[in-house]
Design a protein that fits this description.
about 300 residues, alpha/beta, Rossmann fold, three-stranded antiparallel β-sheet, two-stranded parallel ribbon
């Protein structure tokens, strides 16, 4: 999707190249979809449809312990009930199949091994408990624990053979500032070591991290604009470093406001069953009423 001439010159937004707009809806089936998903996915749907582009649906089901078949089926059903439609996806195929991340593992393995050959990642055997006990700071933006610098593998250490049963982290350039333009929020920038640290690209259970998988898929599927929640702003900085490492042009970004729990004021999570789309449907709400409630509870 092409923006105004001024917008097109900002960092992180591709200039007009005659590329057709391609957007995506990409739920993680680790629980029932809720009001926040409805609000964000409607924005993605509206922006693509307004531009006469192509919308694809991708199931991000990499976590074998949390992603369940009933959630996969329910997400498709709930979004169809809301009136959203898409042009490519696991239920209608398309030129970029498969549209389930669990079926795209060979692609991720190829790319993580490329990062390994480039010397951009290193093995990180530390457990979550060891990392927490090191008392590292947290990101002031998304609260994520920054990987302790003392656990970093020296940059001049010999390259270890790639072991898919090991955690691998991307070495973030010290002090690197990563700017980008958000089509809703304007210019944003995050600094390595302060806002985020060395991040996982591969997990010891032989699956890629979220960061690597979405970059790989958005590039392979030709996504021109990523629409998602504000809670993933810092992830954009991490992902831009991966785009740079692979020599790929990044998409544009549009981060939506989050939807809050009316009782606590905190952003919704999949544990808020009372605000799940399934539950709201049982209560007799219409799609228009669901969207109205979501709009009224934005943070």
């Amino acid at each position: 999707m092409q923006g105004s001439p001024k917008e097109a010159t900002l960092p992180g937004i591709p200039p007009p190249e005659g590329r057709a707009c391609r957007g995506r809806i990409a739920p993680t089936p680790s629980g029932w979809l809720h009001l926040g998903h409805a609000a964000t996915f409607r924005v993605a749907w509206r922006r693509v449809r307004a531009a006469g582009g192509t919308l694809l649906y991708r199931t991000e089901d990499l976590d074998p312990h949390r992603c369940r078949p009933e959630y996969v089926a329910a997400a498709l059903e709930d979004l169809r009930w809301l009136g959203l439609d898409w042009d490519e996806g696991p239920d209608c195929s398309g030129p970029h199949a498969p549209y389930r991340q669990s079926e795209r593992l060979p692609t991720y393995r190829f790319l993580v091994e490329k990062l390994h050959r480039l010397g951009l990642i290193y093995p990180a055997p530390q457990s979550r408990r060891e990392i927490r006990e090191a008392a590292p700071p947290r990101s002031p933006h998304d609260g994520e624990i920054l990987f302790p610098p003392g656990f970093r593998r020296p940059a001049d250490a010999p390259l270890s053979p790639f072991d898919p049963r090991m955690n691998w982290r991307f070495r973030v350039p010290d002090g690197r500032k990563v700017p980008f333009a958000d089509r809703r929020l304007g210019l944003k920038a995050f600094r390595a070591g302060r806002d985020f640290g060395d991040f996982l690209v591969w997990r010891r259970d032989s699956v890629p991290s979220y960061e690597l998988a979405v970059v790989a898929d958005d590039h392979a599927m030709g996504i021109t604009e990523v629409v998602r929640g504000e809670d993933l702003l810092v992830s954009t900085a991490r992902q831009l470093l991966l785009y740079e490492a692979f020599g790929w042009s990044p998409p544009a970004w549009f981060h939506c406001p989050l939807v809050a729990d009316p009782d606590t004021g905190e952003r919704l999570a999949k544990t808020h069953r009372s605000l799940a789309l399934r539950e709201l449907r049982k209560q007799g709400l219409t799609p228009d009423e669901v969207f109205a409630r979501a709009d009224g509870q934005r943070l």
